[in-house]
Amino acid sequence: MTNLNFNPQADVPDLSGRVFVITGGTSGIGKTTILRLAARNPAKIIFTGRSAARAQQVITEASALSPATKISFVPCDQADLESVKASGEEIIKLSGGRIDVLICNAAVFIPDAGVTKQGYEVAFGTNHLGSAAIVDVLFPTLMQTSTATESSDVRIVFVSSESLLTAPKEGIAFPLLKTDMASFACVASGLKRYSQSKLALRLYALEMAKRYPAVTSIAIHPGKIKTESVDTAPWWTKLFFAVSSDILTPDEGCYNTLWASTADREKCKLQGGWFSPVGIQGPEIPQEHLSLSEQLWTWTQTELKTHAFSGL
């Protein structure tokens, strides 16, 4: 279900003074999110990505929309936890000790079977563990911002996907996460691995909300978006996009992220929520999958600590 009754120019409030961090901001909905945010005059936008050339183009376009906003790029390969840690530390320096909203957007879309630098299945290691790692590094600054004033409104937005509904039967195959899972599920193996990683993001947002209520944690489905990544996806994915009727442009694909990042927190009951575009509750997730949130949390903290992260 998609409801695009949302106008970024009218529905996103003035963002003066606020600091936004977004991962994976050099293309796709990451880029369009930055441009839409910049148009509402935040103090700073800090974004990550792998291409310095693309990043410069984003900075040029965003700065034209709001010359007073400080736009900064930090290189990061989210499939490498060492890179994530280094980029997080640089983000803290650039933030000046304030981060109002962290948008965990960076992801790989149905990649070929493989592992990250640290040996995790590539979709899970990049999409979930990489996101959890950047949260780990930035969390002290997020918490510091949340206690700065009574009106502080600090959020973490996890860009998940309704593809989590096609996750494997067990939800998350924990024993296989340190393999390439090449033969996992046999049919549509790549989609299953991707869906598993997106389920993890939704579960992580849920567990974050339970454990740290001072920070609003939200998971969203951005919609079915025709981005550049679709061009290199498997043939059956291209066919799906070709026959679907509710495909969004990259600009429309950022609307739900914008809503989750800026909508009135008291009116919208955002904490721990899971939303389809724009601001619609759901879709419903099987209870047996939701029940994995605590196990995922424990697994994630254990793995992060193994790689010299603090853990939450």
UniProtKB/TrEMBL annotation:
The record lists the membrane-crossing segments as: none
Q: Which UniProt keywords apply?
A: Oxidoreductase
Q: Which domain of life is it from?
A: Eukaryota
Any one GO MF annotation of this record: oxidoreductase activity
The UniProt record lists the keyword Oxidoreductase: yes
Family statement:
Belongs to the short-chain dehydrogenases/reductases (SDR) family.
UniProt cross-references to PANTHER family, sorted A to Z = OXIDOREDUCTASE, SHORT-CHAIN DEHYDROGENASE_REDUCTASE FAMILY (AFU_ORTHOLOGUE AFUA_2G04560), RETINOL DEHYDROGENASE
Would you tell me the protein name for this molecule? Answer: NAD(P)-binding protein
Species in which this protein is naturally found:
Geranomyces variabilis
The beginning of the lineage is:
Eukaryota, Fungi, Fungi incertae sedis, Chytridiomycota, Chytridiomycota incertae sedis
